[in-house]
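Hi Y.,

Following your request, here is the sequence exactly as I used it, all 233 residues.
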Amino acid sequence: MPEIVSHQEWLDARKAHLEDEKAFTRARDALSARRRALPWARVDEKYIFQTGDGSKSLAELFGPHRQLIVMHFMFGPDWQEGCPSCSFWADVYNGLDIHLAHRDTALVAVSNTSFEKIEAYKARMGWSIPWVSSQGSTFNRDFRVSFTEDELQNGTAIYNYRPSRFPSTEAPGLSVFYKPDPETVAHTYSTYARGLDMMNAAYHLLDLTPKGRDEDGLDFKMAWLRRRDQYND
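Below is the corresponding structure, written out as C-alpha cells. Let me know if you'd prefer a different format.
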C-alpha cells in the first residue's frame, strides 16, 4: 500500500506522473498513426451473413459508410449462450454505433452460430448492437477466430498471428474493413487477445483505482466475471 501523505506531497507526485502519462499519450498517438499507415488486403471472398433483413454480403454490412468494425463475438454453433468475456466487451460497445456512424463507420458483431440464437441472447442482454451470423461461411476461420478440435490439440490453430492451443473452438477478436469504392472491400486491421484490452472502458476505469483490476491470485484473469444478469446467481 502506498503511504498517505500531505496534499502537497501528493500533488508533487501526481504532477511527476503526469509527465509519464503525457509521454504514453504521445507514444500511443504515434502507434495509431503507424497502424493507419499499414497496407490493406483486398477481400475477394464473397462472404454471406444472416441478418434480420435476410442474407447480406460483407460489403452490405457497411450500410452507407466506408468503414466497418467487426467484433468477433465468441458464440459457437452448439453453445446455448454467448461468451461471458465477449458479453463484457459488448456491454461497453452497446449504443456506440450511432456515434461511430457520424464518423463514417459501421459497427457489427459477428458470430459462428444461428441468427435465431443470436437474437435470443441479444434480447436477453438488452443490447441494440447490430449482430449477424456467419454460420455456413468461412468468415470466422479465415479471420482466425474459429478452429477445429484437431487444430487445437495438435497446435496448428493460428490465433493472434502465431500457432496456439487456444482453450476453445471460438476466439475473440476485432477486424476493421474499408470500402474505397462500391465494388472493393479491403481488410485494414485485426487484433486479438490483449490487443482487445484498449477497447474495454470498464477495465480502464478500474485501472484508475487503487486496487486496479484486482485479478491477481485468481485462477485466471477473468475468473470473477459473470454475464450482466448472473452476478446474483
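Residues 7-36 form the longest helix (30 residues).

Thanks again,
Q.
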